[in-house]
Amino acid sequence: MKKLRLLLVDDQSLFREALRTLLSLQPDFEIVAEAENGERAITLAKAHRPDVVLMDLRMPVMGGVESTRRLLQAVPSARVVVLTTFDEDEEVFEALRAGANGYLLKACSADKLCESVRAAAKGASVLEPSVAARMMAEVNRAATREGRKVAPALSDPLTDRELAVLRLLAAGRSNKEIGGELGITEGTVKNHMTNVLGKLGVLDRTQAALRARELGLI
């Protein structure tokens, strides 16, 4: 079995130790390195070429946002998943713009964490619904304060059903959950998702959510 190579990045040694202990129990995971700050993470990523990086945001020397940006420039094949707390919403948004595949709460369950690592390794986006909802509320407040600009029309506009799928995606729903809410099969959701990504000109769910917000679609 080819194991997923993981790099753990957090300035709190106790949290890193807990992560290492938890993830090491999985037969398909291998912890190849640990870093206490973003600068060290970049050096270790170059040396070990991890498949997935679990990245804290607030660290000394170099924080998670800048580290994500530079690490992905150095190791484009890596997937970065941000581990966050509720008071870091704006930094999460910036980390996604820097190229992170998604974000999780540090208090998430062990099963959720392991599933998300595997999903990220395959290139899927990892969206934490509760954080997504808070970010969406902040985006809406900012748009109200500043006055939302008129978004340029898409050359191929989204259908009503595609827009409904997009809004649920941005709220952090899985394909199965979207299907349940819209009364359609998971396969149909995937077809709509493919159309949405193509029309928005993006590659994954995280980019779709960010692009939709920029365009004022959600």
Automatic annotation (TrEMBL):
GO terms for molecular function: DNA binding. Residues 5-121 form the Response regulatory domain. InterPro entries: CheY-like_superfamily, NreC/VraR/RcsB-like_REC, Sig_transdc_resp-reg_receiver, Tscrpt_reg_LuxR_C, WalR-like. GO terms for biological process: phosphorelay signal transduction system; regulation of DNA-templated transcription. Pfam families: GerE, Response_reg. It comes from the Bacteria. Keywords: DNA-binding, Phosphoprotein, Transcription, Transcription regulation. Residues 151-216 form the HTH luxR-type domain. PROSITE patterns: HTH_LUXR_1, HTH_LUXR_2, RESPONSE_REGULATORY. Gene3D superfamilies: 3.40.50.2300. The modification 4-aspartylphosphate is found at D56. This is Response regulator transcription factor.
